[in-house]
Predict the structure.
Amino acid sequence: MRYALLVQGGPYSSQASHSALRFARAVIERGHSLATVFFYHDGVYNAARLAAPPQDEPHLGDGWRLLHDEHGTELLVCIAAGLRRGLLDEREAARHGKEGHSLEAPFELTGLGQLVEAGFSHDRLITFSP
Amino acid sequence: MRYALLVQGGPYSSQASHSALRFARAVIERGHSLATVFFYHDGVYNAARLAAPPQDEPHLGDGWRLLHDEHGTELLVCIAAGLRRGLLDEREAARHGKEGHSLEAPFELTGLGQLVEAGFSHDRLITFSP
Amino acid sequence: MSGQEIREPEASESDSVVDNSTTTGDLLVILRHAPHGSSWLREGLDTALVAAAFGQQVTLLFAGEGVLALLTGQTAGPLGQKGTHGVIDMLAMYDIDTLMVDGRALKSRGLCTDDLMLPVTLVEGDGVVSLLHGHRLVLNF
Amino acid sequence: MSGQEIREPEASESDSVVDNSTTTGDLLVILRHAPHGSSWLREGLDTALVAAAFGQQVTLLFAGEGVLALLTGQTAGPLGQKGTHGVIDMLAMYDIDTLMVDGRALKSRGLCTDDLMLPVTLVEGDGVVSLLHGHRLVLNF
Amino acid sequence: MILHLLNRSPVTSRVIDDALAAMGPDDQMLLIEDGVLGGLPAQAVPFKNLAGRLFALREDLLSRGLLERCGEHVTIIDVRGFVALTEEADKTVSWY
Amino acid sequence: MILHLLNRSPVTSRVIDDALAAMGPDDQMLLIEDGVLGGLPAQAVPFKNLAGRLFALREDLLSRGLLERCGEHVTIIDVRGFVALTEEADKTVSWY
């Protein structure tokens, strides 16, 4: 089956992101495709490229990137939720006249329509909230 | 009196930051000193320098900066809570081998000891949480 | 998705009914959070609007604190926060006209349909169960 | 502030007492959140450790879900999240030995002091009120 | 006197029980944010021992359409009144 | 069949009431994160109508020291079992 996840909890603030990443790996272990992870509400903070958690704790951003690299999982970040929380890629930073960027590939800023699309075009959508 | 605020809610995710900023202004209107705002838990996201909220909504980061510029309020961000959430100034970014930065003056990364210090050296400490 | 900033209180003509049939559709969005206190309500409503704009048949269920989203007399916040009442006003434009309200949530807060901005359908008893089963996708905000 | 990753369950020798006197100090940290589910517990404990390191007299009150912080047999999370049981083990090193537990919170979860890692003082009735009034500063996590 | 801030609705959160249990006979409580729902007459019962010591923030009632719907069990104050309460209180404790 | 996920403790959050009210006679519930506290025997009562349909996540019980303290009213499954439940369910609804 093709799975999509909706992640709405901030990394390190609630367990939601850890639960989602653990579930994602189990989905793949059971032979399914983890096609899409959509980050919304505080879940968008998972994409913060400068996150520097202590070395003896799991690095969630790296965990998501590994899923993308090894399994082609799309990492979609709601652009409206991201912009107000300070998550901009180079293009959005330029558009808003700001120097630097806080989000980069494989995370992609995208519209909320992609969440709706994910909900209807995948076999399963599982939500992890704070 | 000298007031300190502890802000623990993320901007735009909960009302905590809005409540704190509104309270901060009223503290000053009543003739007190708003000496310190300490950002902890998801409150540290208030310091995200790239935040780009819609133009018809209040810009919380600018609100905090204005307090600092006009009233000398210290804007202290817990470094441990900030680093794991991706809030690094230029110095911490260099120390962690990362390019760019996500936090800048007048926000300052500081230790949790400053919260304890604020609690005991100010006349009042008021907490705003999500 | 902007809306009017201030809305004067008004007594809404209530023609709400209790739902004993089964409402079906593509997407059920459950709204369980109050306006102003967090971004959950706004984000849930935005999801509903986008789904409707994509041509999906959307049902809204206001439950728990979410029933406050429909209260008359809401205004912008003290710092100019927009609130969500402007979005509620726009639902009809997006052809979202199936507004269900958990009757228990309304009653436990001492409110009735006369307190609400729009006509709604009250859901009682197993009505919520039917709603969840009657939609292809359920998103809970 | 790192700690051991795995802790085997063990029956703790309970020498806890019910507090009918008034405990006073500089800082009361109230811990109301469970381990692993959020960062609140960790952040509250860190605040207590720092205050103690600064020479303040610190009292901890475990209330609500916070009583789970003291449960025996906690381990790291499935992705290697450290949890907070290692920090609990370090409290004595920081001279934080006034550990108060809301008896009501323990009882409503069907737990007793034998379930806890450390000896604690149970607080009942107005004990919580006295604790709040007996400390110069109260931080609620 | 301790000022207790409550920002959660008493209908959906049980934190109100902890807050009330922690209040001494002279302590005061201010309802803010989602907590102002406690100002509805139907929510008066849990606050019955707080006569004259229960406040609700005007700005948060207003934006939610609850200002005209408030019961007699709460005293409505604005944000300056909120600051005034913190001036009088020895300390302030937030429940969330 | 709908799978309901609950991640809040039934002692401190009232969302469990909404979740239970939304469950049909064949629906299942899985307790995760802070929700696994519902696996304690003292918390069995609210779930009394869910015999055979109530699950708790093993990994979350283990890390909290609750694995050996679980009651008979819950079936313990690991994260692969969690995925299996979502395979069987027509849809999954999260309560938080």
